[in-house]
């Protein structure tokens, strides 16, 4: 009886442990893929997301040696698919694969493209395969999101004699297939880059539309074709590259003289109405590089390197709601010369919150005046800043007061928290999840600057969108968020390890799990892209006794802990509820962001339970009066990183052709709208309160007998110290005589009539001016990654402009 009881206890204990599955591969992991995780069906204007339950746990790995591994049980066991395929090849021919592609038209369809012209595909996440062959020279395969059979690829071709179109960077040829790679046909030569139209899902866009940068009669042009280049529509001449999002298309063109500097054009993404406008920057200097940092929230963040000798220095600009006119948001943003990436991150799950690294402005100015301060020396002077208003104002990160061991952190004066960015090699940048609002993890240090010594960094976490940070572990770690923010898994990445740690309470407490007998270097920790799973994959590398570099994959299943399911989401105010209300705040701790007060329901930090329901929902509370945070610098103005008002950018950049935006227009008649140096942040909903919009001002030398203005002339000093305690519009009191009143009454009647006509013919007007045609009734799947897009890498002797 005692023996039976002992066995039961052991059984229960075994069930309450994390399930660990260790596997060794012939070489390190190059990338990992989830097959069949989701499919999006678009019907009319409705988007429905479904998940294939029978295939959602199928994973594929491509290793550094080009072999394919498959797991049908979320990484517990892996099969070498390449080995199986080789057995069916004549004389057991060895296979090697270059890339894996999951079809955006159906996520169950997956292609494995081989380097020797032998490839495989599957329509059911690997239950069955089809072998097909193609030219060994094909590369860079791009799948169409409307039809799983349509693929575009490239092939390099040598130039002929006296061929005016065959130039450096234009030696590609486009090939297309409509039968899933079985047969290919040549479509266009002299190509630099090409891509399927991002708007293929819309009804008026042909499914075959391809955008291309290519040579035409000796000139580089941007074109598109709807019939695989049987006919071509030229969009822009003298173009060096393009990038299209769901809202915009960016085109890079040479400067006016064709030799120095570059210009960036922007237009709506709908190509049939392509009318590009030049990006308007307030600093008229030669531009050498452009990096599109983010377009996700309606505004465009653009990193531009001007004529700086140190190409790691860039300026960050933010657009107005139209996307054409840009204002300076941040000076001296950190940029990588190797990748072109910038230390600029959006905090996912939060509206308008960004984190960025910059070089200290004082040290930058010293480096320009002293030859003793080299670009390498500037690496010692990096700082981290955060913005809660889409780049309107930037603030240092508040350093935590206590470390992960409970000891006081010595940090005073200008001391703050600094985090590693994506320009740091082999480091995790700031990480956040769309399904865990307010939660972010990063690696860095407290002090005056970001340290360059790996042994001085620690791991930090915030759960309120960056206001308060906690040191959750000493040292540098890889990390992943699962269970909608309820489960965090980490592993130290600065030395070989054989254990990981996990936390159910967002870093308050940690548990250790041994993941193998052999120590190895962790490369990454991943979970299913939705961050809703309790299953994780840890992979890394180590050298064997034979000095061969091996890959290791560890599957972690936390469901075997049998953690209880969270409850009380229906009423977070109950004491026994596992959930709470959370209201995001601005930098001044005001509970209004972009003119609205929003609250979320999310799991409490101390509630150790499985966050099964999708409850991280936000609710609108009320509209707020405008405050200074609702205004950003107007075109031609900028704000110092230390804070303060918006001042004319000419004060910073003393260029002869920097426009003076305080002057009235040349054709000024009677009055004009004079900027106070501010414009409302795009997408801001505030009403009333502080008003920093332009003020109607009389033109110089204009006699206005019937109208008198009080306090309308704004001197420079006022611009540097704007009054924000009450609306500025109240300072301009306009007195109008009776004849003027009759005139205004007539204008009001006409205005009312126009509004009535708009209401009566609303639908026709919307259809007439709509930028986007209706969507197609066809299935597709697209998963957007947050990437920074380099339109040009500015080496003086290299005009490479590909993405």
Automatic annotation (TrEMBL):
Tree of life domain: Eukaryota
Keyword Repeat belongs to the record: yes
Keywords, in A-Z order: Glycoprotein, Membrane, Repeat, Transmembrane, Transmembrane helix
GO biological process: post-Golgi vesicle-mediated transport
GO cellular component: Golgi apparatus; membrane
InterPro entries tied to this protein: Sortilin_C, Sortilin_N, VPS10, VPS10-sortilin
UniProt cross-references to Pfam families, sorted A to Z: Sortilin-Vps10, Sortilin_C
Coiled coil: none
Start and end residues of each VPS10 domain: 57-704
Regions crossing the membrane: 744-761
Name the record gives this protein: VPS10 domain-containing protein
Species whose genome carries this gene: Paramecium primaurelia
């Amino acid at each position: 009886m005692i023996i039976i009881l002992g066995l039961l206890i052991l059984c229960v204990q075994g069930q309450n442990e994390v399930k660990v599955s260790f596997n060794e591969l012939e070489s390190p992991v190059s990338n990992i893929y989830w097959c069949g995780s989701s499919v999006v069906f678009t019907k009319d204007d409705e988007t429905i997301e479904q998940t294939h339950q029978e295939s959602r746990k199928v994973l594929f790995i491509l290793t550094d040696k080009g072999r394919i591994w498959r797991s049908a049980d979320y990484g517990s066991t892996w099969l070498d698919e390449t080995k199986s395929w080789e057995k069916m090849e004549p004389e057991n021919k060895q296979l090697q694969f270059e890339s894996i592609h999951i079809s955006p038209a159906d996520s169950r369809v997956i292609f494995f493209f081989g380097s020797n012209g032998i490839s495989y595909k599957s329509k059911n996440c690997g239950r069955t395969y089809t072998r097909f062959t193609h030219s060994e020279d094909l590369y860079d395969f791009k799948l169409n999101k409307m039809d799983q059979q349509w693929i575009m690829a490239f092939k390099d071709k040598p130039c002929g004699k006296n061929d005016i179109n065959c130039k450096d960077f234009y030696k590609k040829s486009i090939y297309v297939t409509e039968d899933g790679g079985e047969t290919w046909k040549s479509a266009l030569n002299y190509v630099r880059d090409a891509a399927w139209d991002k708007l293929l899902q819309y009804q008026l866009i042909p499914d075959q539309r391809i955008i291309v940068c290519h040579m035409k009669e000796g000139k580089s042009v941007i074109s598109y074709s709807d019939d695989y280049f049987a006919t071509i529509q030229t969009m822009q001449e003298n173009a060096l590259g393009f990038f299209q999002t769901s809202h915009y298309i960016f085109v890079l063109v040479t400067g006016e003289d064709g030799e120095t500097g570059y210009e960036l054009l922007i237009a709506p993404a709908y190509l049939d109405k392509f009318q590009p406008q030049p990006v308007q920057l307030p600093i008229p200097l030669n531009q050498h590089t452009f990096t599109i940092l983010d377009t996700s929230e309606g505004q465009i963040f653009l990193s531009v390197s001007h004529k700086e000798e140190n190409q790691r220095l860039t300026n960050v600009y933010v657009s107005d709601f139209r996307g054409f006119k840009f204002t300076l948001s941040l000076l001296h943003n950190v940029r990588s010369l190797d990748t072109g990436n910038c230390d600029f991150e959006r905090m996912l799950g939060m509206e308008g919150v960004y984190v960025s690294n910059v070089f200290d402005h004082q040290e930058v100015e010293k480096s320009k005046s002293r030859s003793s301060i080299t670009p390498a020396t500037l690496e010692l002077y990096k700082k981290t800043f955060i913005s809660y208003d889409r780049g309107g104002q930037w603030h240092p990160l508040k350093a935590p007061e206590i470390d992960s061991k409970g000891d006081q952190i010595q940090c005073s004066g200008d001391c703050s928290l600094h985090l590693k960015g994506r320009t740091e090699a082999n480091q995790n940048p700031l990480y956040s999840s769309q399904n865990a609002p307010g939660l972010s993890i990063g690696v860095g240090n407290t002090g005056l600057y970001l340290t360059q010594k790996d042994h001085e960094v620690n791991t930090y976490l915030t759960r309120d969108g960056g206001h308060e940070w906690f040191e959750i572990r000493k040292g540098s770690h890889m990390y992943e968020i699962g269970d909608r923010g309820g489960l965090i898994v980490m592993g130290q990445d600065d030395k070989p390890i054989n254990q990981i740690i996990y936390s159910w309470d967002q870093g308050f407490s940690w548990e250790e799990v041994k993941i193998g007998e052999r120590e190895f270097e962790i490369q990454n920790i991943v979970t299913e892209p939705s961050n809703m799973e309790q299953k994780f994959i840890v992979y890394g590398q180590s050298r064997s006794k034979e000095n061969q570099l091996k890959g290791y994959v560890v599957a972690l299943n936390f469901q075997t802990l049998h953690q209880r399911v969270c409850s009380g989401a229906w009423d977070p105010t109950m004491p026994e509820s596992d959930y709470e209300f959370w209201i995001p705040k601005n930098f001044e701790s005001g509970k209004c962001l972009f003119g609205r007060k929003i609250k979320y329901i999310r799991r409490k930090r101390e509630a150790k339970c499985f966050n099964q329901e999708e409850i991280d929902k936000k609710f609108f509370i009320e509209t707020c009066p405008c405050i200074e945070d609702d205004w950003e610098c107007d075109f031609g103005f900028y704000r110092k990183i230390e804070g303060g008002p918006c001042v004319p950018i000419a004060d910073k950049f003393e260029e002869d052709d920097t426009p003076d935006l305080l002057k009235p227009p040349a054709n000024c008649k009677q009055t004009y709208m004079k900027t106070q140096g501010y414009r409302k942040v795009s997408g801001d909903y505030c009403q009333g309160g502080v008003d920093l919009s332009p003020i109607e001002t009389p033109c110089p030398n204009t006699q206005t007998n019937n109208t008198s203005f009080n306090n309308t002339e704004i001197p420079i000093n006022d611009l540097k110290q704007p009054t924000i305690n009450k609306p500025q519009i109240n300072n301009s009191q306009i007195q109008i005589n009776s004849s003027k009143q009759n005139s205004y009454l007539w204008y009001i009647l006409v205005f009312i009539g126009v509004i009535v006509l708009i209401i009566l013919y609303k639908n026709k007007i919307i259809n007439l001016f709509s930028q986007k045609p209706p969507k197609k009734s066809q299935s597709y799947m697209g998963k957007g990654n947050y990437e920074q897009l380099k339109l040009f890498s500015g080496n003086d002797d290299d005009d490479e402009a590909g993405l």
